[in-house]
Amino acid sequence: MNKLFLIFFSMVFLSQFTIAQTTFHVNKVIAHRGAWKTQGLPQNSLASLKEAVRLGCEGSEFDVWMTADEVLVVNHDHDFQGIDIETSTYEQLLTKKLPNGEKIPTLEEYLREGMKQSGTKLILEFKPSRISVERSERVGELSVKTVQKLGAEKWVDYITFSYEGGKKAIATDPKANVAYLSGDKTPAQLKEDGFFGFDYNIRVLRNKPEWIAQAQHLGLTTNAWTVNNEEDMKWLLELKVDFITTDEPEKLFEILSKQ
Ligand code: MG
What we know:
By secondary structure, this protein is an alpha/beta fold. Helices cover 42% and strands 18% of the residues.
């Protein structure tokens, strides 16, 4: 009887202990707009996030826009099924659906889904406004505040093409990990402005491979987009980048399994 109780007690204790662990995967694989390609899921849908989690990706990337009434929503393009996001209300976006029947996810809904697990990080790209620099800054600021409100800080890293928006996000939370996407700043400049690292187009890094070593030397993270061919994946792995953002997470996992 005592023995059984001890086993039961140990199981309860161990399960609690496991839940309390930080268990984010470390495998460099960042699913671009979620993992959608193989299963034919809509990009940036909750379903594509769940698939990236199921595959065990280190991160799942997604894009954030702000509606006219300041609701942050997850979508790649400036329009959702033909409705311009920045000049429309959230209510108006609800008149359309993704092909799998989901509505457009809000950032809050997306984060809440991601926070149900702790293996895959959430790579939040806030999009530069097509209207004004002020709105770009507002999207950066509001994204960080939403993450803080939900207590999602340990899940979220940020990326952005907007240098001003990135700086605004860092000012809003100096501990936020913000990487820059545009490929027009040196690692030294990024370091000076408090960025976490770069996430540059693979063509930029092919032209300036020395930026990878420079960033590593400065303690910045290195990431490349959107890397879908084997040769580029292997080249980046040789240079020991931190992350590789791809539409083909399964392919990258296969390469990693052979290393
Ligand atoms: Mg993106």
